[in-house]
TrEMBL record:
<dbReference type="Pfam" id="PF00155">
    <property type="entry name" value="Aminotran_1_2"/>
</dbReference>
<protein>
    <submittedName>
        <fullName>Aminotransferase class I/II-fold pyridoxal phosphate-dependent enzyme</fullName>
    </submittedName>
</protein>
<keyword id="KW-0808">Transferase</keyword>
<dbReference type="InterPro" id="IPR004838">
    <property type="entry name" value="NHTrfase_class1_PyrdxlP-BS"/>
</dbReference>
<keyword id="KW-0032">Aminotransferase</keyword>
<keyword id="KW-0663">Pyridoxal phosphate</keyword>
<dbReference type="GO" id="GO:0006520">
    <property type="term" value="P:amino acid metabolic process"/>
</dbReference>
<dbReference type="GO" id="GO:0030170">
    <property type="term" value="F:pyridoxal phosphate binding"/>
</dbReference>
<dbReference type="InterPro" id="IPR004839">
    <property type="entry name" value="Aminotransferase_I/II_large"/>
</dbReference>
<dbReference type="InterPro" id="IPR050596">
    <property type="entry name" value="AspAT/PAT-like"/>
</dbReference>
<feature type="domain" description="Aminotransferase class I/classII large">
    <location>
        <begin position="34"/>
        <end position="382"/>
    </location>
</feature>
<dbReference type="GO" id="GO:0004069">
    <property type="term" value="F:L-aspartate:2-oxoglutarate aminotransferase activity"/>
</dbReference>
């Protein structure tokens, strides 16, 4: 049998990308076990009926053929307008490419920024697919630690030390998994390094509608950064459209031109009726995005209230996104050990910190994605389990 390409056979770097616990939880659910899942960022509500109505009307109206590869003009204009409204960035439709979700946009952006063998930087902790995305384009991931003691805000000096010879840097704010929203000082330090090292900056901003503290500042709005920034966004989190696979890349017109060529030879665009539904969703304005985000702010506050009543589990209060990172090192367990035992004993599934890199060891990520009453029950089980493990450790 012919050999598989090294690029794909090595895409996970020899591991499972930290998804084994998630798959085991899903297998238990499929077998009828009542598992409470706090794993992936999947809304507990589904896409709003009026968005689905717009999708159905477009499909029945005949928008089922090949759509324009860059995306429909209407949707590109709306995306550009949304980005302009966040920070007055000079985007027009020529600066936007519509993609099949944010993950596809990350792959395309790295394809533009990196040649085979190039070094691509990312901050650790990172979303679990980031290293594989980089390997998938033939580049080499190099992680730069963002430390818990710094609130997971990356240090400029660390980035400068790690960036020599690199071609790109992937940033994510609001951040998955930590919930950190990068401060102006952090972004300014990143911008200085990007300028000094001539880096492409790929800015994953899919959680820009979920900010609980502070302000989200689009990286392309930083002085001098527009021309070297590829901004990734999607409607997955802002409008609960995860299954619609509708995202975008925003950048210079020249960069978007190259990315259109890539799309022509790979995805060949996104179905027109899905784009029409996305355009309808964006046309409803930021009030709808705030309504979609509201349950995650509420559940974030539920977790913080529970944390205040005990001393064993610690957390840096997340400033954004739909997750909380919990420090469970007091139990003496790794995040993976904690997660495996929690699933076995309490039928609660989380993601271990080790799924997201070295800097997240001894942590777990809790997704704020169950209805409030069920989420409260999952928290009860998690905190009771932790108390047992602390008692066993002390015995």
């Amino acid at each position: 049998m012919p050999a598989f390409s090294n690029r794909l056979s090595g895409i996970t770097g020899g591991g499972d990308d930290g998804w084994s616990l998630f798959y085991r939880a899903r297998a238990l659910k499929d077998a009828g076990e009542p598992v409470l899942e706090l794993t992936i960022g999947e809304h507990d509500t589904r896409t709003a009926p009026d968005i689905l109505d717009a999708m159905a009307a477009s499909a029945r109206g005949g928008h089922t053929g090949y759509a324009a590869v860059p995306g429909t003009r209407d949707l590109r204009e709306l995306v550009a307008r949304r980005l302009q409204s966040l920070a007055n960035i000079p985007y027009g439709p020529e600066n936007v490419l519509i993609t099949p979700g944010g993950q596809s946009a990350l792959f395309a952006a790295h394809s533009l920024a990196c040649d085979h063998g190039d070094t691509a930087l990312l901050f650790d902790p990172y979303y679990a697919t980031y290293p594989g995305t980089i390997r998938g384009v033939g580049a080499v991931p190099r992680a730069v630690a963002a430390r818990p003691e710094d609130g997971f805000q990356p240090r400029e000096a660390d980035l400068m030390d790690a960036s020599e010879g690199a071609k790109s840097l992937l940033i994510n704010t609001p951040n998955n998994p930590t919930g950190a929203v990068y401060s102006d000082a952090t972004l300014e330090g990143i911008a200085r390094v990007a300028e000094a090292r001539d880096l492409w900056v790929i800015s994953d901003e899919v959680y820009d509608a979920q900010v609980w503290e502070g302000t989200h500042r689009p990286f392309a709005s930083m002085p001098g950064m527009f021309g070297r920034t590829l901004t990734v966004g999607s409607l997955s989190k802002s409008h609960a459209m995860t299954g619609s696979r509708l995202g975008w890349i925003a950048g210079s017109a020249e960069a978007i031109g190259h990315l259109i060529n890539l799309s022509t030879h790979t995805t060949y665009g996104v179905p027109g009726y899905i784009q029409d539904a996305g355009a309808y969703a964006l046309s409803r304005g930021p009030k709808v995005e705030a309504e979609v985000a509201a349950p995650f702010r509420r559940r974030r506050d539920m977790v913080l209230a529970r944390l205040a009543d005990q001393q064993a589990i610690k957390a840096i209060p997340p400033a954004g996104a739909m997750y909380v990172m919990l420090d469970i090192r007091a139990t003496g367990l790794s995040g993976l050990e904690f997660g495996e035992m929690l699933l076995d004993e309490e039928r609660v599934a989380i993601m271990p910190g080790e799924s997201f890199g070295e800097a997240a060891k001894g942590h777990i990520r809790v997704a704020l994605t169950l209805p409030d009453e069920i989420f409260a029950e999952a928290l009860d089980r998690l905190f009771a389990f932790t108390a047992r493990k602390l008692a066993e450790k002390a015995a």
